[in-house]
Amino acid sequence: MIRRANEIATIIRNSKEIHIVTHIDADGITAGAIASETLRRLRKEYSLECVKQLDEVVIKKLLSEDHDLVWFTDLGSGISTQYPEIKKIITDHHECPPESDALFHLNPHLFGRDGSFELSGSGATYLVSKALNPKNKDLSALAIVGAVGDLQDRKFCELRGVNTEIVNDGIEEGMLKTMKDIRYFGKETRPLSKLLQYASDPLIPGISGREDACLALLQEQQIRLKDGDRWRTWVDLDKEEKRRIISTIIQMLLSKGFGYQTATRLLGETYLLSKEEEGTVLHDAKEFATLLNSTARYGQYEVGLQVCLGDRGKWLKEALNLLSGHRHNLVEGLQFAREEKLQKLGHLQYFHAGDGIRDTIIGIVTNMMLNAEDIDKELPLLGFVHTENGDVKVSARATQSLVDRGLDLATAFSKAAKELNGVGGGHNIAAGATIPKGKEEEFLRMVEREIQLQLVY
Ligand SMILES: [Mn+2]
């Protein structure tokens, strides 16, 4: 992979003007930020755009613009063998066939690595940046925000594979710190009771989703909820307080028969950005990633990009505004999805949100749904929504144990979408597709057949 990164670096050096095309999630934004900062430092002429997916409209526009070089980050592997008239380089991590191997294409899957947890789109982009100049190692922290944003630490409760090398670069450069801690979201900014209320991996039986039960637990453990007027967060607790809460949750899990494996998922590696202040949304990579998701997914990628590039003034303020809107939309979206009746088939379950949820957050909502206490974890969950263009977007999420049994959602989605003149792909554990409206039933039938073939019973 290092050699491939060097080859791509040479293509960049030999190009005058470069147009970056990236994806609208946290991994895409950080990838775009790494690419543009790298080109700025090289004094290249460059521009950037952020897209939901590489559809015909995007490609047509690129063909008409006639760039010296197009740099696809966190997407592009799906079209690597097409459009030879576009001079391109690709740093992506979505599943791709071996025949897409080419000198301009860096993707962990081409090197026997799994792009769902060993390297992200921003990580692949970082490898090229580092090949161009070792001084770019200071961009490693952004690559880790991208990896965590893509949930690459979920499988082992820590980052693995090539990601580990990027973490080490970050530690060496004084950009990153790691520590073993509770894995729940919002350790720096959420009031303690909210941290427990929204706890999802692992769920806390009888506590997750119930505010009064969370408050009762904290009271029982004699944890002060406030410092003066301010709600205390997880990072405000001292060691002893943290220990009390952790051991209480572990006891609860074990006594409800959840088993040792589930209980150990309570703890994992936390990735902290050393240059950011504790208690802000930028300090913990997980919270930083959510901030970025709340910009690009609402068409405001410039906001997230500027925050990645270092703005802590007006752009950060705008990002925080968007974050509160995003939180609100997720709560509403989840509520909406829960009210839609979940349909169960033999090998999958699904809901159709129609116009009720934005297509850009359907993946996040589907993931939150699958994590809910009362959802069957033995079946992959699919969520359908209508898009602005009159198509249907479908997102799927599954558990690691299904993947371990052979499930590959990316393959199922790409095959079925192709049959219906749509596009689909992603990772074994999480995938997405866009298909024509009215083709949902057919899509479900094909995906179900494919899943049936994949799973070893
Ligand atoms: Mn990605």
Describe the structure.
The chain contains 17 helices and 15 strands. The protein has 457 residues and is α/β, with parallel strands linked by helices. The chain folds into three domains: 2-172, Alpha-Beta Complex (inorganic pyrophosphatase (n-terminal core)); 182-294, no CATH class; 340-454, Diaminopimelate Epimerase, Chain A, domain 1, CATH 3.10.310. Strand 1 (17-23), helix 2 and strand 2 (45-51) form a beta-alpha-beta unit. Helix 1 crosses helix 4 (121-132) and helix 2 (26-41) packs antiparallel against helix 5. The protein is globular, with a radius of gyration of 22 Å. Manganese (II) ion binds at residues 27, 74, 93, 120-121, 150.
Radius of gyration: 22 Å
Distance between the termini: 36 Å
Provide the low-confidence segments as ranges.
none
Please describe the biggest sheet, giving its number of strands, its sense, and whether it closes into a barrel. Answer: 6 strands, mixed
DSSP strand count: 15
Give the class-level CATH name of the largest domain. Answer: Alpha Beta
Biggest sheet strand order reads 10-11-12-13-15-14
Helix content: 40-55%
CATH topology of the largest domain: inorganic pyrophosphatase (n-terminal core)
The backbone outline, from C-alpha atoms, is globular
> How confident is the prediction overall: mean pLDDT?
95
Number of domains: 3
CATH architecture of the largest domain: Alpha-Beta Complex
Q: Which structural class do the helices and strands define?
A: alpha/beta
Taken as a percent bin, the fraction of beta residues is 15-25%
